[in-house]
Amino acid sequence: MSIEIIPVGGFSEIGRNCVAIKVDDEIVILDMGLHLENYINHTEGAEFDDITDMSEKILIDVDAVPNIRVLDKLKKNVVGIFISHAHLDHVGAVPFLAKNFKCPVYGTPFTIQVLKALIRDNKVNFKNKLVAKKQNSRFKISKNIEIEFLSVTHSTPQTVIIVVHTKYGSIAYANDVKLDDNPMIGEKTNLKRLKKLKIKALFLNCLYSTTPGHTDSESVPANELKHFFLDNNHNKKNMFLTTFSSQIARIKTVKELAIKMGRKPVFLGRSLAKYTCAAQDVKLADFSDVKIVKYSSKVKKFLSTLPNPEKCLFIVTGNQGEPNATLSKIVYENYFDFKRGDIVIFSCTVIPVQENVENRSRLEQALKSKGVNVYKDIHASGHARQEDHKTFLRLIKPEYVLPLHGDRHRMRKMKEIAVNEGINKDKILMLRNNERISIN
Prior knowledge:
Blueprint: E1 3-9, E2 18-23, E3 26-30, H1 36-43, H2 56-61, E4 78-82, H3 88-91, H4 94-97, E5 105-107, H5 109-121, E6 130-132, E7 137-140, E8 146-151, E9 160-166, E10 169-174, H6 191-196, E11 199-205, H7 219-230, E12 239-242, H8 248-260, E13 264-268, H9 270-281, E14 291-293, H10 296-304, E15 312-316, H11 326-332, E16 343-346, H12 354-369, E17 373-376, H13 386-396, E18 400-404, H14 408-420, E19 437-439
Parallel strand pairs: 3-4, 4-5, 5-6, 10-11, 11-18, 12-15, 12-16, 13-14, 13-15, 16-17
Antiparallel strand pairs: 1-2, 1-19, 2-3, 7-8, 8-9, 9-10
Helix pairs in contact: 5-9, 7-8
């Protein structure tokens, strides 16, 4: 017998991550995410980090979610859905697709809390049981399969490498990982356990396989922000900062710096409220001293009636310049009266999609035309780069390597790296969605 790999989404593309692993007559599904660009293009009216109510058929037809139709004949064999972390390109399709499988959905406490918020926001009649498992725990799922959640650093808390243990060997699913020796929240990557495991096949994110070097620690932007806020005189200046809503460590850092400056931290935006409330619910961070205005319809009134905005630090959604996000509405619809010398910080990178590049450029120009000082790229990625990929491969020494979460160019680069690290080129599997393969 053998293990069968069924790529459902995220192979030879970026986004809508999803893979099924068949062990004898049992199947586990790893991740169930959105293709964000396709999703946003289809919905048009949503914030980047939010989901609107859409039918499963439409979302599949526009390639916004994994095409689970490839599993139609195997639905009854699925014994569990396992989510690696709380980013929408990994968890965002669960509210719409999980109902097709009569099994629980597993994730870490923060991931499950975010998923509950997504289900609630979309008013989904969700019947699957939600099960929270801690990082570095191992649990039996069925007669053939055990699952292990290994801690790994990333740009959102409680991310895990999912290890599927079977009698034919163990498979490690390392999708969205980095090696951060100084994470600002949570545990380091469990290298000690990874080194001990005998891994038959490794799924490894190849998004930054073309980028040389190591990925910076989250402590790097934390120190940059500390210097910017505390070592400069910003008196009487209005200050706004935007970053990814799921980047809880960064948001916690900024909140604490606001208080040190004597400013009131204020969160503006729906997705920001969703992720920070989830973090607070599972005791990852304390945001009880923050004013949160969730809906953009209330942001305008709040800002227009605020007596001393220069005594606040506003953290807002809309870091990619999305036209319907809170920051764009503040700028384009004049929710706020900016003054010359006010500050807006983009603590993020631009996701390299043409629409994002154009939206961000337009927003930055609009801010500058109002006399606002724009600062950007105070950021550290959540994705491994070339030297980190080499470390993973040397440490794990898998028999098979399966690049995912990248286009063909990035996959080919990952293959080159793996070959240079001694992996048999015939055992580096460059799969496309629904290109099923068995490994012995």
